[in-house]
Amino acid sequence: MEEPEMQLKVKKVTDKFTESMYVLANEPSVALYRLQEHVRRSLPELAQHKADMQSWEEQSQGAIYTVEYACSAIKNMKDSSVYFKSIEGLLRHTIAVKDRLNAARR
């Protein structure tokens, strides 16, 4: 065989081999395998992130509840000032009545 003819046959064989390897490397089952490997490697880290986020959410909800409860208590204290003023007035009136009764006894 002549050299150019041999080179042509070798080139055809290598081209077919390269094409076959390309098809094999990009076959859907290989892609699914690669996807599975990626998920297998990254899933534990993602699960840990999810657990951390849930923990932070629980802590945040607890803190929000505490702040809302404190705000409610302060508002109730502010609203109760009317009642305290009324009680103060009644106590002053009671003391005045007691003083008058004591004065009347003497």
From TrEMBL:
GO cellular component: BORC complex; lysosomal membrane
Family designation: Belongs to the BORCS8 family.
Family matches, as Pfam families: BORCS8 (PF10167)
Superkingdom of source: Eukaryota
Protein name in UniProt: BLOC-1 related complex subunit 8
Keywords: Lysosome, Membrane
PANTHER family assigned to the protein according to its UniProt record, in alphabetical order: BLOC-1-RELATED COMPLEX SUBUNIT 8, MEF2B PROTEIN
Subcellular location, record wording: Lysosome membrane
Naturally occurring in which organism (per UniProt): Podarcis lilfordi (Lilford's wall lizard)
